[in-house]
């Protein structure tokens, strides 16, 4: 098994974007880079999701509730929940999707 070099993944996403670096039947791991002034235009996902801030600061709004995040912080967004980042200049995130979940009915 080889380590994941997240800084290398983030460097490839210089202007922003998302890259999956690990995918299994139960888990997807990716790096998401947001760079101002581009807005975060993601839509609710079909899986539970955890964000871990690797670099930068920003505000994550989940279901109308805002939380300020900085390096080392983590936040959860349940499957099907509206969520979006704002108030960032450059924000680099580790993203973990639990592919065993689906939105509440």
Element pattern in H and E: HEEEEEEEE
- Measured distance between first and last alpha carbons: 38 Å
Question: Can you list the strand order of the major beta sheet?
Answer: 1-2-8-3-6
Shape: globular
Helical percent range? under 10%
Derived from helix and strand composition plus strand pairing, the structural class reads mainly beta
Q: Treating each run of at least 4 consecutive H or I residues as one helix, how many helices? A: 1
Strand content: over 45%
The mean pLDDT is: 94
Largest sheet: 5 strands, antiparallel
Q: Report the C-alpha radius of gyration, rounded.
A: 13 Å
Folded structure, characterized:
With about 100 residues, the protein is mostly beta strands. The protein is about 5% helix and about 50% strand. The chain has one helix and eight strands. The chain has one helix at about 5-10; strands at about 15-25, 25-35, 50-55, 55-60, 65-70, 75, 85, 90-100. Strands 1-2-8-3-6 form a five-stranded antiparallel sheet, with helices on one face. Strand 1 (about 15-25) and strand 2 form a beta hairpin. It is globular and about 35 Å long. The mean pLDDT is about 95.
Short description:
The protein has one helix at 6-12, and strands at residues 17-23, 27-35, 48-55, 57-62, 65-70, 74-77, 83-86, 90-98. By secondary structure, the protein is mainly beta.
What features would you highlight for this structure?
five-stranded antiparallel beta sheet, 8 strands, three-stranded antiparallel beta sheet
């Amino acid at each position: 098994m080889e380590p994941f070099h997240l800084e290398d993944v983030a460097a490839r996403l210089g202007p922003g974007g998302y890259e999956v670096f690990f995918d299994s039947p139960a888990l997807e791991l990716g790096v998401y880079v947001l760079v101002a002034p581009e807005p975060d235009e993601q839509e609710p996902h079909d899986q539970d999701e955890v964000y871990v801030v690797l670099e930068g600061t920003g505000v994550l709004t989940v279901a109308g509730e805002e939380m300020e995040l900085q390096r080392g912080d983590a936040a959860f967004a349940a499957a099907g929940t509206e969520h979006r980042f704002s108030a960032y200049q450059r924000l680099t995130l580790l993203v973990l999707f639990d592919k065993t979940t689906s939105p509440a009915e």
